[in-house]
TrEMBL record:
Belongs to the 3-hydroxybenzoate 6-hydroxylase family. It comes from Salix dunnii. Keywords: Monooxygenase, Oxidoreductase. Pfam families: FAD_binding_3 (PF01494). The keyword Ligase does not apply. Residues 10-357 form the FAD-binding domain. One of its GO terms (molecular function) is FAD binding. This is FAD-binding domain-containing protein.
Length: 410
């Protein structure tokens, strides 16, 4: 592909993560082909697993891929939160639909399998972006890749993660470090395990939160969140530090899960977020260029909405672009795309800001530390009242995709 000639696309999506692949699937459903540019050599699955709430499954239903996952992952309906310092255990009930933890790789593969094989161009690193006015309110996005390739596109969607090049081009403020970091990994019990089929979470007064969540009869997704960021990068060293330093006072049941970690899945990362007012008032789009997923609204993981909100973005973006195509008799009209993208941003701006805010507050309360009023807020109010209210953010339906006439999807 090196030195490839200039080419023209209807839609270019930067990044083959959850947001990027889901957006490509949404566009395929409404008869629009997208080219996905991914800097890595293949599908990336950093993060090991994620928990999908009802809003995420409604989005997957709209995308037509939920059936690929529901047959492999059973829902969880309850969990417990244990205070390490006091021994208090509180029960947490999830919604009637429950939540389903899934392997991140399985979700990405389920989305990728819906796309034509030539839809994703791997090893494609973005070098620069420019916008060329075409007259009549239309513009063309020009993407320059590091290998010398130039791609022109009628629509450019940045799904390139927390440190998004497209978000930077739009002028969005850089994400901030929340002051918290997280270790994430899978744990494997080859002979099977005998743990309950529920979320088991732990908090302590030193500002640490940890949990393990069953994926199936042999595997768990586990994480530990704490203040600061000072673990080394080698998987064995990270596991050792969790066992000996960060979770040394945690119950043996949790330490046993950590000991069974699949070291190839361990990752350690600072938790980043964008100030909600930067999302409400920031430039989330310019003409026919916009962002989705973490590129728009990086958030801390306490509400488990990073993946779900990315899937919502994809459906809403697909709906507005699809409606434009339908309105124009099946034609992809550049001049109308800026309006479609503007409508998408208006629909997503406040929803995304509320999820970022809810996630940050949830983490701040749970990792607040030893002060008496913080303990009171967390132990007496948060899990009983506030958590359920914040959980209401997951009871959200992003809507469906418009129907297009048969034959359009190809």
């Amino acid at each position: 592909m090196k030195g490839e000639m200039e080419r023209m696309e209807d839609v270019v999506i930067v990044g083959a993560g959850i947001a990027g692949l889901a957006t490509a699937v949404a566009l395929k459903r409404v008869g629009v082909r997208a080219l996905v540019l991914e800097r890595s050599q293949g599908i990336r699955a950093t993060g090991a697993a994620l928990t999908l709430f009802p809003n995420a499954w409604l989005a997957l239903d709209a995308l037509g891929v939920s059936h690929r996952l529901t047959r492999s992952y059973d829902p969880l309906f309850k969990g417990s939160v244990t205070n390490i310092n006091t021994g208090d255990v509180q029960q947490v009930l999830f919604s009637e639909q429950g939540i389903r933890p899934v392997h991140r790789k399985a979700l990405l593969e389920a989305l990728a399998e819906e796309l034509p094989t030539d839809s994703i161009r791997f090893s494609s690193k973005l070098a620069a972006i420019e916008s060329q006015e075409q007259g009549g309110g239309a513009s063309i996005a020009v993407v320059h890749l590091e290998d010398g390739t130039t791609i022109k596109s009628k629509v450019l969607i940045g799904c390139d993660g927390v440190h998004s090049v497209v978000a930077r081009w739009l002028g969005l403020a850089e994400p901030l470090h929340s002051g918290r970091s997280a270790v994430r990994s899978l744990a494997v019990f080859p002979q099977g395990h005998r743990f309950k089929h529920e979320v088991q979470q732990y908090v302590d007064q030193a500002g640490k939160r940890a949990a393990f969540i069953p994926l199936n009869d042999r595997e768990f997704y586990w994480f530990l969140t704490c203040k600061g960021e000072n673990m080394t990068g080698e998987p064995e060293q990270i596991q050792r530090e969790v066992l000996e330093k960060y979770a040394d006072n945690f119950p043996s049941i949790y330490l046993d899960v950590v000991r069974h970690a699949d070291l190839s899945t361990i990752s350690w990362a600072p938790l980043m977020f964008r100030h909600p007012w930067r999302i409400i008032f920031g430039n989330l789009n310019k003409g026919n260029i916009t962002v989705a997923g973490d590129a728009m609204h990086p958030m801390t993981p306490e509400l488990g909405q990073g993946g779900g909100s990315s899937l919502e973005d994809a459906v809403v973006l697909g709906r507005h672009i699809g409606n434009s195509v339908i309105k124009n008799g099946g034609l992809f009209v550049e001049g109308d795309m800026a309006r479609a993208i503007d409508d998408y941003v208006k629909e997503r701006r406040w929803r995304a800001a509320s999820l970022v805010t809810g996630s940050y507050l949830s983490g701040w309360i749970q990792l607040g530390g030893a002060k008496w009023w913080v303990r009171f807020l967390r132990d007496r109010l948060f899990y009983k009242y506030i958590f359920g209210w914040l959980g209401g953010l997951a009871r959200y339906n992003c809507g469906n995709l418009p129907a297009v006439s048969s034959g359009k999807e190809d």
